[in-house]
Amino acid sequence: MVRKPQSYFVAQVKSINDKGACGIEYPLKVKALEDGTIGIGPDATLGCPIMTALEIWMRYSVQPAAFVNFGMPIVEIRQISAYSCRTRNSKKGAELSEHAFGNALDIAGFKLANGRYISVKTDWNGSADERAFLREIFSSACKTFKTVLGPGAAYHADHFHVDLARHGKDGTATYCKPSPPMTPPARRPFIGAKYAAIPGQPRYGLSAAYTGSISKSPDQVTISSQLPTYDSSPFFPQKEGTEQTIEQLLPDSIDDLAVGSIE
């Protein structure tokens, strides 16, 4: 599957044929996710499958959890490793990391619309809202990705690692460490106005840019001071004694939400 986006935020670039088995056939240079809603800093080079999984996670978990816990959206992900031709944990003699195929992302933290930064390293055991947010999105990541590592896993005290590696005999098993600390609730997906996370541009209020179209370049956007809203009511009608989970919201496979042409 090849995603061929035409926007300032995501662009297909030349194939990467690195040393050994490292490389990406159809790499994407990603500045932002979700139509420019969530910036990635610095820009990340990723494969199409992990890009689609990230957008699912942002829409169905990260943004809803941010609104519930902080009353505002995430505007930027701080990533510390995307494509990288290296072994697991950069250990000599180890197997190649999923980073070597553009199939993984390491996330150190999240920036809110008001500029507040939520750090995996310092806030995993931080305030009540910080703990709730990070634990919810970690748990939901275990429903979206195939490998999820965070505080409690060796070498991952300061970031979340997510990838789509194949585990188990049929390749469908999931590996999460630590074990998911909660059952993630089924929140309404966040699909709001397109606010561009553009480097050097304001975002929400004095820190937001409204695009109207992902095809527009940074010099064509106009600034908006209006924050998006979010309906935090349960996504499904709740019956006494029942619990709805994020699994009822997610598609059967990542491919179900892939966009763009297939070649």
UniProtKB/TrEMBL annotation:
It comes from the Bacteria. Residues 10-176 form the Extensin-like C-terminal domain. Pfam families: Extensin-like_C. Gene3D superfamilies: 3.30.1380.10. This is Extensin-like protein C-terminus.
